[in-house]
Amino acid sequence: MKLFGNLKVIDNEIHLGKYSMSYLKEKYGTPLYIVDEDFFRENIRKFKNSFKSKKFNTNILYASKALLNKYIANVVCEEDISIDAVSGGEIYTILNSRMSADKIYFHGNNKLKKELEFAVDSGVGKIVIDNTSEINKLEAILKEKKKKQKVLIRLNPGIDAHTHEYITTSKNDSKFGLSIFSDDIFDIIERVANSKYFELLGFHAHIGSQVFREESFFSEAEEMINFIKKVSDKGIRIEELNLGGGFGVYYTSEDSPFELEGFLKRYIKKIEELLEENNLKLKTLTIEPGRSLISNAGHTLYTAEIIKKTYGGKNFIFIDGSMNDNIRPALYGAKYEASIANKFNDNLEEVYTIAGKCCESGDIIIRDIMLPKVEEEDLILVSSTGAYNYSMSSNYNRIERPAMIFVSDEIKVAVKRETYEDLMRNDL
Ligand SMILES: Cc1ncc(COP(=O)(O)O)c(C=O)c1O
Q1: Angle at 108 between CA 111 and CA 195, to 5 degrees
Q2: CATH 2.40.37.10 in the chain, residues?
Q3: Is the model's pLDDT at 170 over the cut of 70?
């Protein structure tokens, strides 16, 4: 297992900073979401230092869908970047942190009327319009409230990001955004640009998640800038281009992410060149990484409860967690690395399948992983679970969600462990 950030091994046991996994288990219990706070902050700073230009402002948004609670929103606020949200609930959570509403970009292919109203009433900075129904809906709300809203339009540049079908977002039949190739696209843009209720700042695109080819991002930038040229030629000024997130990360040795800092510099250079070729000027270039900021900074600690060998010869480790706290392997075959945290350097001896406690055969976190001999009560650390684990978690089988701690010099509990009462709180 690759040790990211401040993970290290002392006396054969994984530690995060100065805290051993046994200490964390004893103090906070398992399953436990553990965030390496300093590493998360370091990742944000890397983005800020590499994604900058002398020709335009750069703006980095944390894609909060990757992992959101009040604590992380405050960290993002302290690191002085912006944030995106895709639901009223995400906006509400962010507003309950120190983050100011004007730093929020509101995305989503199907924003409900009540969510749009909430966003407008809360003073959300920018709303990213996805479709024509939304233009009408939002315009009616703004008219009623006598307000003007800064907006971007989400466009689909038709790029194949070569990633899993469930996390690709920019093929021509994607559910997101308006195609730059559709016949009425310029009419739609003109309608927004000419509305007295909107201030059209620019365009947004996001080609997918866990994308490893630099070329996909370059093609996206090229398509979008060529398109901005066409729109500018029609007399509509575009000042902001938001190219989304999706930068691929390491989960297992099958993933080969590009070196981020080098890539970001090349990305900026490419965009500067494309703008120059098209004789265009942008005021702001925005990106919105989620996974590449938080994924490798989060890990999940479990206890091995039962070791079971099947008649067919499969060696299972049943952990105290499940697909409830990590749905990604069941949802789209995501892969992870793990170690026995208290036996890190022991010889790898057996092939195990790490399975959860849900009544689903698909409730498997890792298939066929070589580990040292596992015994009950051993600690299993699954790494790089920071993104889309907690945020996709559920109470299936009425299982309580784990607690989440942020570890730096000190430890902060960001989310309490759920109780049986929590599971019942809406039952009448
Ligand atoms: C619009 C938008 N922006 C940003 C992201 C963040 O993607 P990632 O976490 O892969 O960086 C997503 C993820 O699905 C998204 O839909």
Answers
A1: 70
A2: 7-36+295-424
A3: no
The reply to whether 108 sits in an annotated binding site is: no
Check if 292 has its Cβ closer than 6 Å to any atom of ligand 1.
yes
Using alpha carbons only, what angle is made at residue 169 by residues 156 and 264, rounded to the nearest 5 degrees?
85
What residue ranges of the chain are covered by domains with CATH 3.20.20.10?
107-289
Question: 359 CA to middle of ligand 1, Å?
Answer: 31
Q: Does any ligand 1 atom lie closer than 6 A to the CB of residue 245?
A: yes
Q: For 69-79, how does the pLDDT look when each residue is reduced to its tens digit (9 = 90+)?
A: 999 999 999 99
Give domain 107-289's CATH superfamily. Answer: Alanine racemase (3.20.20.10)
- Please provide the CATH number assigned to the domain covering 7-36+295-424: 2.40.37.10
Q: Does any ligand 1 atom lie closer than 6 A to the CB of residue 290?
A: yes
pLDDT above 70 covers a percentage of the chain that reads 97
For residues 250 and 259, what is the distance between their CA atoms, to the nearest angstrom?
Answer: 11
Amino acid occupying residue 34: I
Q: Is 288 in the pocket of ligand 1 (CB under 6 A)?
A: yes
Query: Ligand 1 atom closest to Cα of 293?
Result: 11
Cα 409 to Cα 19: distance, rounded to the nearest angstrom? 9
For 397, left (φ over 0), alpha (ψ -120 to 50), or beta?
Answer: left
Q: In this model, does residue 171 exceed pLDDT 80?
A: no
pLDDT at position 428: 97
Give yes or no: 359 in active site: yes
Exactly one of 310, 359, 361, 410 is catalytic; name it. Answer: 359
